[in-house]
Amino acid sequence: NTSFKMVLTKNTMYYTGKYWVDEIVGQYEYIVNNVTIRSTLNNTNPADEGIWSGKSLVRSHNKPPCSNCPTNERRLRANISDLDRDMHGTLVLKLITVNGQPAIEAFIFGTSQSSQYNGMELPSGYITLIKQ
Question: Considering just the CA atoms, what is the radius of gyration of the chain in Å?
């Protein structure tokens, strides 16, 4: 039994100090067999977002390739962090519909390694997230 939950917020017209961007920020929780493996849901410091995007849109031919995406469709690339371990990966998000419900297809890859840990304790590959 595995659960991966993301809570995302869209910030429009966010000023970075240099320019204005729209961004997605958020937190996540990963549970396996009723044991919380990693969670950033309780982070209260805005600088400690578990998930954040800047202005990074991904075309269908960029990693990960999307063979069923129309050529003009864009996906959002975001960073996903394990702040306790100071490790980072890449999260690519695509809006989809599952049984008439809005959903997100997420792909997690490129999790960093460290000498102290053997990778991030997050799922990798494709995950379908249903809006709750």
Answer: 15
Global pTM reads 0.81
Residues sharing a CB contact under 8 Å with residue 66, sequence separation 6 or more, in sequence order? 60, 73, 75, 94
Q: How many CA atoms lie within 13 A of 20 on its CB side?
A: 2
HEC string for the chain: CEEEEEEEEEEEEEECCCCEEEEEEEEEEEEECCEEEEECCCCCCHHHCCEECCCCEECCCCCCCCCCCCCCCCEEEEEEEECCCCEEEEEEEEEEEECCEEEEEEEEECCCCCCCCCCCCCCCEEEEEECC
Beta pairing, strands 35-39 & 20-32: antiparallel
Tell me the β-bridge partners of 107. Answer: 92, 126
Over residues 45-56, the pLDDT tens digits come to 767 778 888 668
